[in-house]
Amino acid sequence: LTERTNLAGVRHILLVLSGKGGVGKSTLSTELALALRNAGKRVGILDVDLCGPSIPRMLRVQDSAVHQCDSGWVPVFVGQDKAIALMSIGFLLERPDDAVVWRGPKKNALIKQFVTDVAWGDLDFLIVDTPPGTSDEHISTVEALRPHQLLGAILVTTPQ
Question: What GO molecular function terms would the record report (predicted)?
């Protein structure tokens, strides 16, 4: 039941994917969130790029901390207007540059926890920034989000 309630207020979910690294998924996720916010939408970003969580740095909130509430983790709110909610493993590391060296089951459990245990509240869009490639993290993310309305996916590619 928790799975439904924490995403119940999210109207659309967008996955940002690519077949390789370095194509700009995190940049696109960040810019899309800012553009939607500027259009008056309530936006969240779920950063499931566990080995390279760059969005906290891009939004200049890398020193923020995640807190607990009755319904789970409270995401970090970005900007003076606090209009973008962000959850990332970057907030859970002791130092922002710490490496995450985890096997599949631990990564999958954290992704499921990010989906079920973050108190997103009411959002028009939840943008999910994924790691490069097509790995366990992608399968876990899609499995965890399956019960919810997916608006779709954005596939980031490069000409080469």
Answer: 4 iron, 4 sulfur cluster binding; ATP binding; ATP-dependent FeS chaperone activity; metal ion binding
Q: Which domain holds residue 79?
A: 10-156
Q: In what order do the strands lie in the sheet with 76-78?
A: 76-78, 84-88, 43-47, 123-129, 10-17, 152-155
Task: Give the total number of structural domains in the chain.
Answer: 1
- Calpha distance 5→99 (Å, rounded): 32
Q: Are 83 and 42 in contact (CB under 8 A)?
A: yes
Question: How far is residue 139's CA from residue 125's CA, in Å, rounded to a whole number?
Answer: 21
**44: exposed, middle or buried (Cβ count in 10 Å: 0-12, 13-18, 19+):** buried
Residue 82 within a domain: yes
Q: Quote the distance between the C-alpha of residue 25 and its chain's center.
A: 12
**What is the model's pTM?**
0.86
Identity at 26, one-letter amino acid code? S
CATH code of the domain in which 24 resides: 3.40.50.300
The pLDDT tens digits of the residues spanning 94-126 come to: 766 666 666 778 888 888 888 888 999 999 999
